[in-house]
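As a warm-up, study this chain.
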Amino acid sequence: MKIKNLFKFTALAVLVLGIYAFESQKNDNISENVESIQEPTIVGVAAGNDNFSTLVTAVKAAGLVETLNSEGPFTVFAPTNDAFNKLPAGTLDDLVKPENKDKLTSILTYHVVSGEFMASDVLDAINSNNGKFTITTVQGDQLTASIENGNVILTDANGNSSTVIMTDVDASNGVIHAIDQVVMP
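Now compare it with the structure written out below.
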């Protein structure tokens, strides 16, 4: 009788330990999965927002997805779909053609700055530099940031301007600020 009870107790103990080990492993896997979930990259954030679908299409056509998915950090002044719609008729269709990839890449990288600059950083830079701050883009040319009627304005190399309409959209490799016009190098 004592041996039967010992076997029952041992079997019960093994069962309990097995269940505990299984549950413990399951919880460890859940914890690992939660930890591995991270914020999407700039491309992921843009792809998840319908207002940037034209930008995402252009980034793909220019072959910049891998670059903008890289570690960064980057600050992207991202034109919205409405901004692209303000370009002269046929401009975007022409730019996404394979033979115009270099030109499209130049335009898109003109909207990217190396480093992560939140809206407060941009405002501080403008205010610390007598109301205008020159930004060197990844493309190599410059944008000038200023404040007009309480809005941050970007002026491109041709004197055209764009207004920042949304700020501080976080991504794992930088930040996005939406703009209402496509700026041109």
